[in-house]
Design goal:
Elements (H helix, E strand, L loop, with lengths): L1 H15 L4 H26 L8 H9 L9 H25 L3 H17 L5 H20 L3 H25 L15 H5 L6 H21 L7 H11 L2 H21 L4 H12 L5 H29 L3 H18 L4 H18 L4 H26 L3 H11 L1
Helix pairs in contact: 2-3, 2-7, 2-14, 3-6, 3-7, 4-5, 4-6, 4-7, 5-6, 5-11, 5-12, 9-10, 11-12, 11-16, 12-13, 12-16, 13-15, 13-16, 14-15
């Protein structure tokens, strides 16, 4: 009977997660974040620092693996470096402008705008946008300076090494279906030594074109760089970016009335409910799922802190489960993913000594403010699903 039940559970899991791709992705995020936190927190405590020193690195290690999908090592490393650069640059910029309200607010809106604008360019762009937003929020909230900022950036660099170890050694990306790279221009400049100055110049130009192609597309291409850039520019999500930025501005104003320190929770809510949606019906569905996940996740965190507050190891286990659940569900079952990330946020703040009930109430209020504003703005400025269907029929 037990064997039959396990077999049914296995078949059901395989049906919803073919080849267990989501399971491996969640395992990468969980292991990478746990290893990064396991290295960073003891180091911080040993050097008389607070555990928050390791938070940016642990969050980077949690989010980045979900968007590193290239089987080839070169493309994978390019994606990792781009994610690392975006996260570190956003964190450093936020820490620099944290004490200047005008620049802080303008920076938040720019992050939302450009993140939404580039969402159509693939998984790497979505991951960079999400990491940029999260890192910018952490930089505003933690506002490290001088040596502490350098230490946090160093921790994020360490996190990239951990992510590399986990993503390329422990749980390597599958190579099934991987197509060989085009022989040109790669082979054109690596084949033998040049015989003349003209050959050297030609191969340097080929190398520069190859580097530009990899940065823009993630792989070598024979198309001219100008054509590639024009194609990418045409694909950018201009309308969702403008709509989300308007909603973020209104959410920032509303969130600041609730709490100056937590107003970014409302802004983040506007970003994630518009991410990947193209109609006001899609935005409405995302809003409902975010509200449901936030309410249940906040309640779960309050209950866990109340029941297990005296047993920190149980809370650490609950955090690991939250990371795994978030990584497993966030891209496929949004409400469940929001439940786990909300529970994780509550558990982390509870472990840091914050009063969990007022914090959970404030998070719910900020999320509700951001979601309500997003819904109103979407109803006014976003097209309907029927309009998209009509345009698709005309193009067909």
């Amino acid at each position: 009977m037990i064997a039959a039940a396990c077999s049914r559970a296995f078949n059901r899991a395989l049906l919803h997660d073919p080849e267990f791709a989501r399971l491996r992705g969640a395992a990468r995020s969980t292991l990478a974040s746990l290893l990064t936190a396991g290295l960073g927190v003891p180091w911080a405590l040993q050097h008389h620092q607070t555990a928050t020193l390791a938070v940016p690195a642990a969050l980077f290690a949690m989010i980045a693996p979900l968007f590193l999908r290239e089987a080839g090592l070169s493309g994978w490393l390019v994606s990792l470096l781009m994610l690392e650069f975006c996260a570190c640059a956003a964190f450093a910029a936020a820490a620099t402008v944290a004490s200047q309200p005008m620049l802080r607010d303008a920076g938040s809106l720019l992050v939302v705008f450009f993140g939404m604008l580039c969402q159509t360019l693939g998984a790497r762009a979505v991951g960079a946008a999400l990491l940029t937003l999260v890192a910018f929020y952490l930089g505003l909230y933690l506002h490290p300076v001088d040596a502490r900022l350098v230490e946090m950036l160093g921790g994020m660099a360490l996190a990239s090494l951990v992510v590399t170890f986990v993503g390329r050694v422990v749980f390597p990306v599958e190579r099934a279906g991987e197509r060989p790279l085009p022989s040109s221009p790669t082979s054109s400049f690596v084949r033998g030594l040049p015989a003349s100055v003209a050959a050297v110049q030609a191969r340097i130009e080929a190398a520069l074109r190859l580097a530009a192609d990899v940065i823009v597309t993630g792989r070598p291409s024979q198309r001219p760089l100008g054509e590639l850039l024009a194609h990418r520019l045409h694909r950018l999500a201009w309308r969702p970016a403008l709509v989300a930025t308007v909603a973020a501005l209104l959410a920032m104003l509303a969130g600041s009335e609730l709490s100056e320190d937590r107003a970014m929770w409302a802004v983040i809510s506007t970003f994630v409910v518009f991410l990947g949606t193209t109609s006001h019906q899609g935005t409405r569905a995302r809003v409902m799922k975010r509200i449901a996940g936030t309410l249940t996740g906040a309640a779960a965190s309050v209950l866990l802190i109340g029941a297990c507050g005296h047993a920190p190891w149980l809370l650490v286990a609950a955090m690991a489960l939250s990371v795994f659940g978030w990584a497993y569900y966030i891209l496929h079952a949004y409400a469940r993913g929001v439940f786990f990330i909300t529970m994780l946020v509550g558990l982390v703040y509870g472990q840091l000594g914050f009063a969990i009930v007022p914090l959970a109430r404030l998070r719910i209020e900020e999320v509700l403010a951001g979601c309500f504003i997003s819904l109103v703005v979407a109803m006014l400025l976003m097209p309907s699903a029927n309009a998209h269907a009509a345009v698709a029929r005309e193009r067909a």
